[in-house]
Structure of Sodium-dependent transporter:
Amino acid sequence: GTPPHHAGAGRAGFSSSLGVLAATLGSAVGLGNIWKFPSLTGANGGAGFLLVYLLSTLLIGLPLMVAEIAIGRQARANPISALRQLAPRGAPWWLVGLGGMAAAFLILSFYSEVVAWVFAYVAKALAGSLLSADPAQTQASFDALVTDPVQSLLWQWVVLAFIGSILLLGVTKGIEAVTKKLMPLLFLLLLLLCGYSLTLPGAGLALSFLFAPEWHKITPAVVLTAMGLAFFKLSIGMGTMMTYGSYFTPGQNIPATATRVMLADLSVSLLAGMAIFPAVFSFGFAPSAGPSLVFITIPAVFAQIPGGQVLLAAFFILIAIAATGAMLSIMEVPVVILHERWGLARPRATLLTLLILMLLGTGCALSQSLLAHIRPGGRTLFDWADYLSSNLLMPMGGIAIALFVGWAWGEQAFAAQLSNQGQLHNRALARALSLLLRWVTPVLIGLVMLAGLGVFGS
Ligand code: PHE
């Protein structure tokens, strides 16, 4: 049949299949691969964690990613309008879009702070003031940075302004053009670092750590962490993939694209692990160093390697590149909502989002200095933002989106998106995914959340 006419027909979007892929992969790849994945894998026992993460990605992540993109492309609108438009008469599914916008603000407020440290470290690495083979020393310089309110805040503002200025260029000339340049560079840098790291003597130990499971370390809380990572990694459950779906070209094959992005993203995580762990093991450090792995252990390790200063700068530039595409996609959610629903011109919507983030972000930026005394439940504001987004908001968004596609939207419309208006015959796939989203995904996410939060006792 003829494709439906959309109110947003003249709306900006990605211009080519390659652009769609670069932007979507750009969103998936980020701190999740280089800062979270290795440290969580290290802290939770290596290969067993990896396996649970893989299962979450396949059973929960991928179907939800397909679902979100399909919703976005059908509606060609921001998440709030999209859910409003596709929902059966009057049902308040748009609240899920609103929740996504809140999650976007929450995620960016801590994410931009980690990238702030990354930017600061790029500057320091280039100036040569970072290297010391003594971990106590690298710990001290990291502490000096994060407990300094002025540096923490200013670097965060630099990061936010940088991302905001790309978004001011728009979806096609900003997001698409920039990620198209950055993604190849990212793979190049990563392969170089990884190739180098695998020649180090600790490579064997590192690989067996990554690929030989320690089952006793898998607790319900660890399973929740792994599932949270799957959500965070694939940018799902908070409107980003829905927003990007609304920019997809009509002919783009959604399931194939989602699968490619998932596989490429996984490769980046594994390559990051293979770049980081051999170095860590070669110099006798523990892999369980947690989030400090990147900022404390790695500088101490690279100090012992010839050419370490260049490698270290390259490493932090790599993280900055990876994080850029991700931040663009998180920030795009409130920008397009403010633009389309509140009727602000796009530049104004971008500036307003920037302003809100500069204010909200202070909570995380100052969480180890001026606001360090605020620690409800033993977590800093930064830790809460991180914990709540991955382990609560994104899974809840995921449940809602699964229920929406499984029960409210209708399989016909879903199948039409998966089959590109009849070009491909994906009916069986649509059927299977619908059943999965209807019966399995919400229950699975719910159970993992409840178990992980300790509801069934531990
Ligand atoms: N996927 C990104 C990463 O791994 C983070 C992200 C979360 C991006 C949510 C968009 C939305 O770093």
Notes: The radius of gyration is 21 Å. The pocket of phenylalanine is lined by residues 27-28, 30-33, 107, 232-233, 235, 238, 240, 326, 329-330 (CB under 6 Å). The longest helix spans residues 94-127.
